[in-house]
Amino acid sequence: MSEGAITLEEGTSKGVYRLQGPDDAVAELSFSKAGTTMIIIDHTDVPDALRGQGAGLRLVERAVADARAVGKKIIPLCPFANAQFGKHPEWGDVLKH
User: Fold this and answer.
1) What is the mean pLDDT of residues 9-25?
2) CA 46 – CA 44 distance, rounded (Å)
3) Which pLDDT score is estimated for 97?
4) Which pTM does this prediction carry?
5) DSSP letter string over 55-79?
């Protein structure tokens, strides 16, 4: 999936990454903040128009990159995100064990 930049909207306790696709389709990954050193990925939503194009993976990759950049850990409660962590052992440095 080549189009659409990923944006981050962040509040004091929650945040959401969004990936804009064609025809107003938007994929989202939501997370909760657990203190200052951890985030919990709660949910990933990819609409039918974006399925099978790597949108969900791109969102998780962005969350991993952002966590890594600031030294945070991730708890992937979302089944999709959890499955992606299982497929990407190179993300182990940000996975909260």
Assistant:
1) 94
2) 7
3) 82
4) 0.94
5) HHHHHHHHHHHHHHHHT-EEEE-SH
C-alpha span between 50 and 89 (Å, rounded): 25
By the 8 A CB rule, do 65 and 56 touch?
no
Distances (CA, A) of 80 to 43, 59, 65, 70, 75: 8, 11, 17, 23, 12
Give all domains of the chain, ordered by start, each with its CATH number. Answer: 6-91 (3.40.630.30)
For residues 41 and 60, the answer to whether their CB atoms sit within 8 Å is yes
Q: Using DSSP bridges, classify how beta strands 38-45 and 26-33 pair: parallel, antiparallel or unpaired.
A: antiparallel
Cα dihedral sign for 76, 79, 81, 84? Answer: positive
Q: What's the rounded Cα separation, in Å, for the pair 5 and 2? A: 9
